[in-house]
Amino acid sequence: MDTxxxxxxxxxxxxxxxxxxxxxxxxxxxxxxxxxxFHVPVIKRMTGKTHVPVLKLNGAAISDSxxxxxxxxxxxxxxxxxxxxxxxRRRALELQDYFDEELGPYIRRWIFYVILPxxxxxxxxxxxxxxxxxxxxxxxxxxxxxxxxxxxxxINPATxxxxxxxxxxxxxxxxxxxxxxxxxxxxxxxxxxxTAAALLSPLVRPPEFPYKAAGPLPEPLAKIxxxxxxxxxxxxxxxxxxxxxxxxxEVATQANVSxxxxxxxxxxxxxx
Length: 272
Ligand SMILES: N[C@@H](CCC(=O)N[C@@H](CS)C(=O)NCC(=O)O)C(=O)O
Prior knowledge:
Layout: E1 5-8, H1 13-24, E2 30-33, H2 39-47, E3 54-57, E4 60-63, H3 65-75, H4 86-102, H5 104-115, H6 119-127, H7 132-152, H8 157-177, H9 191-204, H10 219-227, H11 232-244, H12 257-270
Helix pairs in contact: 1-3, 1-9, 4-9, 5-8, 5-9, 8-11, 9-11
Bound molecules: glutathione.
């Protein structure tokens, strides 16, 4: 079996879902971190679409984080992310769908609305793993990229307000769905917990998220984060990351070995 390969954006919550599943199952894999915008021809060639994550597994290119997890569950059943009991499995998959549809796109729109006026922060989040030449090219295009992203993701004050409300509603639903066990389904970590925590990570910013922000958060984002920091869903996300995010199963290639070392040092230096 070839080593699975993940094409991803580093600071992306849907990509974090796929990465976390690979790491949780201890599947050694290669990561290709792409720059938003520059990813289009690469991914289109592989899938005919443009979105990441994409996982190459046993010769097939699989796009969509939930389909990736489904394929991983088949290829690497243990440790399981799907509950064995059919009713619990149905509930876990329903919750995954709910957070994929009702939280993922909205939290992204809200956070981008807040951070797009800080292009240096956005660049550091998405591009710091690229080659110097690619970073330079991205830097030159960054004003244009802000305009394109606003248009593509339909980001404006009115849609951002809706996105904020949808995010808070999903956090409230999470609070009500968490069982006395601390998990969303039964008494163990499942795909439902992984999905909810990964998709809340851009707001909660757990220290175990594998790619560190290069500098301090832009002030408006720090304020929003503070304002929700006592919400049960926020604290649950921190705790879920702390207990279950675990170690990376990424394998080093010639191209990414120095980056993996830098990440490890950064993690050690921040003590997280
Ligand atoms: N439902 C998809 C959503 C993936 C998605 O929205 N990916 C975004 C990054 S978070 C993306 O690739 N955007 C760029 C594009 O679509 O070209 C999944 O779960 O994987």
